[in-house]
């Protein structure tokens, strides 16, 4: 079914759905970017800052290797979170651009409604794996950093 040959009621439904979908995808882009900064600064960034402050406050630790290993674990986790969230943001932006372009083609009778929705659905799943994996690896590194920090405190003590 083409847009121009459809009933006025169908056109209104399509227009309402288009507006709803646009706002949904735009909201996802915004939420992804906000979530990236919150998570980056709070979790791994906080861990890295705490370790740097601890190394700076205890001069004896500056001569040991393990505090720098913990710092590196948090820093790598921080980078992975940033990369993962950036990939999410790019994926959401790609979906938004696809939706906007598909709707423009639909309104000019170059695509039918089913092609628009199929093109949209085709982009939902691809691109989910890498951000998911990077997020979990980053979280794992944060947990490993905390455990390693505790083990080193127990094994080497705090000077």
Residue runs with pLDDT of under 50 for 5 or more positions = none
Strand content: under 5%
Helix content percent band: over 70%
User: Which structural class do you get from the secondary structure elements?
Assistant: mainly alpha
The SSE order reads HHHH
Label the overall shape.
rod-shaped
Number of strands: 0
Overall mean pLDDT score? 89
Cα gyration radius (Å): 24 Å
Oligomeric grouping of the chains: single chain
Number of domains: 1
N-end to C-end Cα span: 75 Å
Largest sheet: none
Annotate the secondary structure layout.
Layout (H helix, E strand, L loop, with lengths): L7 H50 L8 H42 L5 H10 L6 H28 L3
Helix pairs in contact: 1-2, 2-3, 2-4
Give a written overview of the molecule.
Helix content is 82%, strand content 0%. It is mostly helical and 159 residues long. It is rod-shaped and about 80 Å long. The mean pLDDT is 89.
List the keywords:
single chain; 159 residues; mainly alpha; 4 helices
Can you give me a brief rundown of this structure?
The chain has helices at 8-57, 66-107, 113-122, 129-156. It is mainly alpha-helical.
């Amino acid at each position: 079914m083409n847009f121009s040959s459809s009933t006025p009621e169908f056109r209104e439904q399509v227009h309402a759905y288009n507006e709803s979908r646009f706002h949904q995808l735009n909201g996802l882009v915004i939420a992804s970017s906000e979530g990236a900064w919150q998570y980056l600064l709070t979790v791994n960034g906080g861990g890295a800052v705490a370790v740097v402050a601890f190394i700076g406050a205890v001069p004896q630790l500056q001569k040991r290797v393990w505090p720098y290993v913990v710092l590196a674990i948090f820093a790598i986790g921080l980078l992975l979170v940033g990369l993962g969230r950036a990939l999410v943001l790019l994926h959401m932006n790609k979906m938004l651009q696809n939706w906007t372009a598909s709707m423009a083609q639909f309104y000019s009778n170059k695509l039918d409604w089913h092609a628009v929705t199929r093109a949209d659905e085709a982009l939902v799943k691809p691109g989910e794996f890498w951000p998911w994996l990077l997020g979990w690896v980053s979280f794992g590194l944060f947990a490993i950093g905390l455990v390693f920090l505790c083990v080193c405190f127990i094994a080497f003590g705090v000077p």
